[in-house]
Amino acid sequence: MEFSISATSRKPRPGEVDGKDYYFLSPERFQVKIENEQLVEWEEVYSGTYYGTLKSELERIWSNSNHVLFDVDVKGGLNLKKIFGKNALSIFIQPPSIEELENRLRNRCTEDEESIRKRIGKATEELSFAPKFDVVIVNDDLKTAQDEAFEVILEFITK
Structurally, what CATH architecture does the domain formed by 89-159 represent? Predict the structure, then answer.
């Protein structure tokens, strides 16, 4: 398995590396990728901020004979499920509560107050999509959530 590196039009956070954490594109370059149909899926997650999956990224992973692992927002996950159908497993990773998610965001020290407010608002909306996914995993304890995800994925890819 190999993680698909998403593309985004947002600025890198401190320590993030282009081509490792994300493919960082200007909003204009992202728009060109959309117009040239170079994305499998994409979404304007926040006003003026795009995220998506480059077709070239899937080709890169498949050329290594690996399964693709996506880390996308709920709309991206549902779009990928529509595209790949039964060949895809959709897993919704859910925080134990909105309050705990806010604590985690604050403890990361990577977000300003406005960004935290936006992300909490978005997360509240996204929680309503959980029932549309194949599996929901509550990330109350990281190790337990990782083990559960591993088991679910292993069962899916060995079928």
Answer: 3-Layer(aba) Sandwich (3.40)
| Model confidence, pTM | 0.78
CATH 3.40.190.150 is held by the domain 1-86: no
pLDDT digit string (tens) for 49-74?
A: 999 999 999 999 999 999 999 988 89
Closest by CA to 71, choosing from 85, 57, 60, 59, is: 57
Q: Are 138 and 94 in contact (CB under 8 A)?
A: yes
Distance CA(57)–CA(22), nearest Å, equals 11
* pLDDT over 80 (residue 109): no
Within the chain, all domains assigned CATH 3.40.50.300 are found at 1-86, 89-159
The candidate with the shortest Cα–Cα distance to 140, out of 93, 95, 78, is 95
For residue 55, give the nearest of 37, 71, 72 by alpha carbon.
37
